[in-house]
Amino acid sequence: MTRALIVVDVQNDFCEGGSMGVDGGADVAASITQLVGTDKAAGAYSQVVATKDWHVDPGDHFADPAVGPDFVDTWPPHCVADTDGAAFHDNLAIAVDEVFLKGRHTASYTGFDGGAASDEATLLGSWLTDRGVTEVDVVGIATDHCVRATALDAVGNGFTTRVLLDHCAGVAPDTTETALEEMKAGGITLV
Ligand code: VGL
Predict the structure, then answer these.
(1) Residue 53 in this model has a pLDDT that exceeds 90
(2) Vertex 12 angle, CA 69 and 68, to 5°
(3) Atom 2, ligand 1: residue with shortest CA distance
(4) Does ligand 1 come within 6 angstroms of the Cβ of 127?
């Protein structure tokens, strides 16, 4: 068994004070640091990767200012490439083997859309497979959106998948509850 940790979108704009701050985001950043530190959880993970929402021009993913966001398909502007809002939260102090950037020109909820920061053509799924990874743990923000989509895609790509809920934060209780049910039904282990 070779297990990787996928840290989803622990970025300033998704933490308190950000343009789409999720309650508990900064605490999740700290708890992920406790979980994995700089030694890959004492070797429990063979690889540690992180995704970033990284928007240049994501079309109507950013709400028309005249209409406002519906918080389902359209959102306040967030995680604009190369801005402080797109940076990892300061509480996240971990060693990562690679960062995957997603959403330059699309909505992109799943980390499996993400291209490696060091080589955009290398997508998360093939990067993991090339390193012999068969199992993944998923943590981060938000449980009901990008964690959900990334975990479901992990299963879809053949990885045995767990979501560690103590290290996730959700936007809203009802959508989080629905996401948990979908993940369970999809064969994901919720820990
Ligand atoms: C996210 C809503 C919009 C997330 C990203 O990272 O969960 N949610 N864009």
Answers:
(1) yes
(2) 10
(3) 145
(4) no
